[in-house]
Amino acid sequence: MTSAIDIMNTLGKQAKISAVSLRMADTNKKNQALTLAANRFREDMADILAASAKDMDNAEKNNLEPALKDRLALNEERVEAMAQGLEEVAALPDPVGAISDLVYRPSGIQVGHMRVPLGVIGIIYESRPNVTADAAALCLKSGNACILRGGSEAIHSNRAVAKCLRFAIKEAGLDENVVQLIDSTDRALVGALITAKDYVDVIIPRGGPSLIKRISAEANVPVIKHLDGICHVYIDKAADREMAVAIALNAKTHRYGVCNAMETLLVHQGAVDCLPEIIQQLLDKGVEVRGCARTQAMNDAVIAATDEDWATEYLAPVLSIRVVDDVQQAIAHIEQYSSAHTETIVTKDYATGQMFLRQVDSASVMWNASTRFADGFEYGLGAEIGISTDRLHVRGPVGLEGLTTQKWIVLGNGEVRS
Amino acid sequence: MTSAIDIMNTLGKQAKISAVSLRMADTNKKNQALTLAANRFREDMADILAASAKDMDNAEKNNLEPALKDRLALNEERVEAMAQGLEEVAALPDPVGAISDLVYRPSGIQVGHMRVPLGVIGIIYESRPNVTADAAALCLKSGNACILRGGSEAIHSNRAVAKCLRFAIKEAGLDENVVQLIDSTDRALVGALITAKDYVDVIIPRGGPSLIKRISAEANVPVIKHLDGICHVYIDKAADREMAVAIALNAKTHRYGVCNAMETLLVHQGAVDCLPEIIQQLLDKGVEVRGCARTQAMNDAVIAATDEDWATEYLAPVLSIRVVDDVQQAIAHIEQYSSAHTETIVTKDYATGQMFLRQVDSASVMWNASTRFADGFEYGLGAEIGISTDRLHVRGPVGLEGLTTQKWIVLGNGEVRS
Q1: CB under 8 Å, gap of 24 or more: what pairs does B77-83 form?
Q2: CA–CA distance, A299 with B270 (Å, rounded to integer)
Q3: Which of B365, B393, B408 sits opposite A407 (nearest CB)?
Q4: Is B286's Cβ below 8 Å from some Cβ in A?
Q5: Please, what sign has the CA dihedral across residues A382, A387, A389, A393?
Q6: A92, A202, B270, B410: which is deepest, by most CB within 10 A?
Q7: So what's the ipTM on this one?
């Protein structure tokens, strides 16, 4: 039997070779591959749906949770959405090769940066087979080879999707190994992928906290990851009350299961007058409200919040509220409990807003806007492969540029050091 | 006895607290701390030299190599140079807080980036006590707290230098814990530092390959590192011959022991006419020349190069030369053997130069300039803490900006997601 390491070495070598050719591929060819793959999805619809049916049968046999089954399922509409996703990535500007900051230095040389692909990206994900298409498209467009490892429950769907992608990539005249799916459900391959330092430049995990924790702990390849989204809204004393109510409600109730939803509301003691309305509207929408003593005093339906609440990402219709003495206490609370994803302040006061913007150290810091805007599309990235709460390389929504790096370029006329 | 982990936890907590205050410190205060420290070095000259004398005594007893002793030694001139180094960093622009790319999005929000410190940086280095001052200054100016771990042979000098720095930082009204020296020669502390994920955001090792390999293998904190500098000069068929000779000689002989010195010269078969002169001038300067068969045919003094030569960073008056069929073979040679530090092409041909610039995937890629320019000062960074041959976060010379990251900022007027 071939060992996980042997399989990974083969995939890794193929990825590395393909990455060298992809690095130089012109934008038209990459776009052509994406467009051809989109068409292929439509042409092979029956095959993809048949593969999905096998996964769904197994899901049935294995008593998968309904929520997981919903994520796993492919239908005509979802395959069409995958195809359109590829076409949207094809329409995005190509970041590779862009030269910036080219300046003359006293020595006479010109020095600047050129944007280049990272190399080989390993993507580890669960359930949703559309990630196979989305992630591969973003890697391809940004000039990176990828090695994809989907969940075992989606193996048939992922195979069918990857087959279309590779077919189209070859048709466009590129090396089909720029997209490789780990065609095995052996868990040892995850371990082999996240330690394949010689072949893989970065790992991007997409999935639940347990998957991401395991990968972070065991990987020796750099990881771009996002653990929790414990996002805060702070309503300042000088907040426009109507705006504060609107932002707080939107940040919590627009969607509950997303990482950029608010999990804790902080309210200046001088702005508690807006709390009764916020709490009532939340309760009307079926949100469970937990709060500090001062919040509880506002409404009998408010449950006492514990220390654990401040550190919890509910991803559910639950909100914790704390009344704070001032903006400094709000910032200190965020410093202690935030997952450094996204925080927002609502205030009309210039100095307070500036202070919050400067002092809060999260991937996204907002002023008078809903945390729900922390998103690759809303930020203008066109698409995102994930949201990074790490500090190095890339923070916040990761789009095509986040999948690239820069090299220095020097243009001279025979200059030498003296 | 306090364990290494306990010591690191104490240092780590102190660093993290100090980093929060330093993140917000204004530029004047940081500059004041640097200027006061420079003066302190001059005032405490006698103490610093006395500390250094202790290190030199121990070095004598331990039979340290002369080269190491030279690196270790402090004298009035070197202390003055350290002081001036701090003043130069004080004079550099502060990268922290700079806002860029702020644009309006269709939703009405403005989205942009703000440059912020990385947090806590661990620096591990050998011998040279001036690194204590240089590294601390760059971290301080870029708003990062640092934990410094110097070589045990320099412990007295490092202590004296760190004492001056901390005194001046406190004098300037900042938290002195923004600079902490690990005041112990226990090797277990290196292990504790590079795995202190809760406190340290990035590790920067500065030293020989064995130190860096050990740290890369054992760290679970991200590492910004630079292993070898196997730099290439490629002389194209269309090279200006006079320029080619000048660049090849400068890249090899300007300084031998530096990472941006050329280690392999590649010459197009149609440009071998410039080889006799290059080889003769190298030999005249006492450089040992090794080469492929076609190079050996040029001069009897050329020794046969082995495969190992192409993969060796000599850091010495030795050069390997290979004649290649064309630019593609040169690029393939670089792809196989380069350490991805710096490569240069000498050519008058536009298309060939552009191709080299695009295809070669090193931290610095040059056209008609000596590899010796790969340097923070030459690139305009003002100072450098090292040169990264990694791909993520920062590549090539790392200056103040490389010690920072960016957060997203969003400015709104009450916008919510619909």
Answers
A1: B78/B130, B79/B41, B79/B42, B79/B45, B79/B48, B79/B49, B80/B41, B80/B42, B81/B130, B82/B41, B82/B130, B82/B133, B82/B134, B82/B161, B83/B37, B83/B38, B83/B39, B83/B41, B83/B42
A2: 86
A3: B365
A4: no
A5: negative
A6: B410
A7: 0.94
Nearest to A363 among B362, B391, B408 (CB): B408
pLDDT of residue A1: 63
Assess contact for A333 and A275: CB atoms under 8 A: no
- Tokens 């049935």, residue? A60
| Cβ A139 vs Cβ A80: under 8 Å | no
pLDDT digits (tens, 9 = 90+) for A21-41: 999 999 999 999 999 999 999
pLDDT of A47 higher than 90: yes
Per-residue pLDDT at B310: 98
Write the pLDDT tens digit of every residue in A75-120.
999 999 999 999 999 999 999 999 999 999 999 999 999 999 999 9
Percent of chain A with pLDDT over 70: 100
| Token code pair at residue B296 | 């050996």
Q: Which residues of A touch B367 (CB under 8 A)?
A: 409-412
Residues A72 and A57: their CA atoms lie apart, in Å, by 11
Q: Hey, which bits of A273-317 come out as E strands? A: 288-291, 303-304
CA atoms of A291 and B364, how far apart (whole Å): 55
The DSSP element (H or E) to which B29 belongs, if any, is helix B27-43
Contact criterion met (CB below 8 Å) for B321 and B292: yes
SS3 A171: helix
Which residues on chain B are in Cβ contact (under 8 Å) with A370? 412, 415-417
With contacts defined as CB-CB under 8 Å, which chain B residues touch A411?
Answer: 366-369
Which residue in the block uniquely carries the two structure tokens 């250094």? B52
Question: Given CB atoms, is B243 within the 8 Å cutoff of chain A?
Answer: yes
From A175, A172, A165, A123, select the one nearest A15 (Cα to Cα): A175
Give me chain B's average pLDDT, please.
96
Residues B19 and B117: beta-carbon distance below 8 Å? yes
Distance CA A335, CA B20 (A): 9
Which one of B218, B333, B417, B418 would you mutate to disrupt binding with A, by most A Cβ within 10 Å of its Cβ? Answer: B417
Reading the block at residue A48, the tokens are 């993809």
Encoded tokens for A97 = 């090769």
Domains of chain A (ranges, CATH numbers): 4-225+401-409 (3.40.605.10), 231-378 (3.40.309.10)
Residues 6+ apart with CB under 8 A from B354: none
List, as own/partner pairs, every contact residues A297-304 make where C-beta atoms lie below 8 angstroms and the sequence separation is at least 24, other chains included. Answer: A298/A272
Among partner residues B361, B378, B408, which is closest to A23 by beta-carbon distance? B361
Name the pTM for this structure.
0.93
